[in-house]
Write a structure and sequence with these properties.
289 residues, mainly alpha, Farnesyl Diphosphate Synthase, 15 helices
Amino acid sequence: MGAILGRVEAALTRLLPPAEAVPARLHEAMRYATLEGGKRVRPLLCFAAGELTGAAPERLEIAAAAVEMMHAYSLVHDDMPCMDNDLLRRGKPTVHVEYDQATALLVGDALQALAFQLLAEQQVARDAPTQLEMVKALAVAAGSRGMAGGQAIDLQSIGKTLSLPELELMHILKTGALIRAAVALGAQCGRPLGGEQAERLDRYAKCVGLAFQVVDDVLDCEASSATLGKTAGKDARRGKPTYVSVMGLANARELAEELRGEAHAALEGFGEPALRLRQLADFIVLRKF
């Protein structure tokens, strides 16, 4: 993980516009939002999926950087006063606090555009049709059937009680969609998978995507802001439905373990090349931050 994280950080540093390039304030803020922070779970999943298909690291780092830029954009916008109005992210002031709201809005716009630019201009797949599918997958994950749609449901649900299926749908879109895209893009950087293998890999991605959110909800109740790098307990204070509020803490922990088991089961038959994916499923569920 450490070696891959170092590679991803170097790629992001190289691929983001230089801080001194005009417009300097925007480029500085883009780098502030993206570099030196976060667990980088999506890039790690991208690289791990690439191990299944023998993908070249040079291709994987581009796909991973694109996914991480998309993730960073979503965090910048989610933290703004018109959304979650948060002051802390990745252990430092949020972008709209460090800079201003207008700059934060433009940072998100620019990071999203750059993510698509990278997938369009760099050779990351074996052929053009596959690369076009990768661009489409990222677009769907970011749009109204993905992150944006999940965030819309999240905002509409403040102060309401959701059923478990409703909560699951919200997080399949808000959190799970980009995690599924990270896994898919990593695999598509290498040789093609058979239909059943691709379905099993996507099943794995769905399970770890939901597990990530379940654990996030548990940690929001149990961990401190210093540990999380973001404001702890804010969902409960705002009346946002979570897995803990819907199921209770013990049942939420149990669900995370069930999803971990399902993720491992989905990888049966892949053998040694799926080791990193198995380890990441464990990391996602057992993490403390």
